Amino acid sequence: MPLKQATLPSDELAKSLVEQAASTQEPQYLVVYASLVRGKSWCPDCQDAEPFVNKKFAGKDAQLIYAGSVSEWRNPSNQWRQEPFNVTNLPTIIKVTSNGKWHKLVESDVYNQKKLDAFVN
């Protein structure tokens, strides 16, 4: 299943990820990218990561959110920079495990195939 854009508000999304991980005993993933400008992310690292992430999650259930425009992303009160997401750099992949713990793979590590494979598998 390809990435699907998350539609829940951030607080509900956080709760949903934890609940789904606990009930399925499978990690839940959230991919955080910079928003699109003319169909392309404004973030070069997000652009580099996209083919790796799309291929890796082609057969997995994962959600996608766009963290905003450049000015929205740089705002310290951006919802994705807050608890429990605490995204500091883009792209970020968040993994919520069945015990409720949150793990992150950040920036260039997302498009490092070896690190991406270890994180997702």
From TrEMBL:
One Pfam assignment: TXD17-like_Trx
Q: Which domain of life is it from?
A: Eukaryota
Record domain Thioredoxin: where: 16-119
Entry's Gene3D superfamilies? Glutaredoxin (3.40.30.10)
An annotated GO cellular component: cytosol
Q: Name one GO molecular function term.
A: protein-disulfide reductase [NAD(P)H] activity
Similarity section: Belongs to the thioredoxin family.
Concerning PANTHER family, the annotation shows: 42-9-9 PROTEIN-RELATED, THIOREDOXIN DOMAIN-CONTAINING PROTEIN 17
Q: What name does UniProt use for this protein?
A: Thioredoxin domain-containing protein
Native organism: Thyridium curvatum
